[in-house]
Amino acid sequence: MSTRKLTALALFTTISLAVYAIECAIPPLVPIPGIKPGLANIITLILLKRYSSKEAALVLTARILLSALLFGQAVSLFYSVCGGLVSLLIMILFNRLLKKHCLFLTGSLGGLFHNLAQLLAAMLITSSMAVLAYLPHLVIAGILTGLFTGFCAMYAAKFLPKDLHA
């Protein structure tokens, strides 16, 4: 990996961590656990468009680990890993199917599957099906927030230098 690429990926990791930190400071938009905008996912989507899935996974993993270390607890790491990795796998698949176009659809599916994976993680931790009561809210929120982050990523990617990934 070139020094230029390594530096760019480190900057993307830092930006996604900063966005995550700001988002953590914002009070919840609705009184339902697990619903937040997921703005750091904008960086993941940009990386999927401009770089490879391997590099997107590297930055996402670094952000998840650093954010759990700096802002979370052990249980939040489990939720983040489950949601983040399932979401990333779905976004990689659909990003390839859509030939890196329509980031808003990729983001929407990523948001949906992120919430579904976290809901399954909650079922494992609590050993209760009661958490499924949140399913309709988390499906709607995942789709809407994913659409938003996808549109933001499409817009932001237009303003990045073309040689940034060299």
How would you describe the overall organization of this protein?
The protein has about 170 residues and is mainly α. It has helices spanning about 5-25, 40-50, 55-70, 75-95, 105-125, 135-155. The chain has one domain: Arp2/3 complex 21 kDa subunit ARPC3. Helices cover about 75% and strands about 0% of the residues. It is globular, with a radius of gyration of 15 Å. The relative contact order is 0.16. The mean pLDDT is about 90.
CATH architectural type: Orthogonal Bundle
* Secondary structure category: mainly alpha
Strand content: under 5%
The number of helical runs is 6
CATH topology: Arp2/3 complex 21 kDa subunit ARPC3
Kindly give the count of domains: 1
**Can you identify the CATH class?**
Mainly Alpha
Shape: globular
Radius of gyration in whole Å, from Cα?
15 Å
Helix content: over 70%
Q: Roughly what is the average pLDDT, rounded to an integer?
A: 91
How would a textbook summarize the main sheet?
none
- Name the poorly predicted regions: none
Summarize this entry quickly:
With 166 residues, the protein is mostly helical. It has six helices and no strands.
Spell out the blueprint of helices and strands.
Blueprint: H1 3-25, H2 41-50, H3 53-71, H4 74-97, H5 103-126, H6 135-157
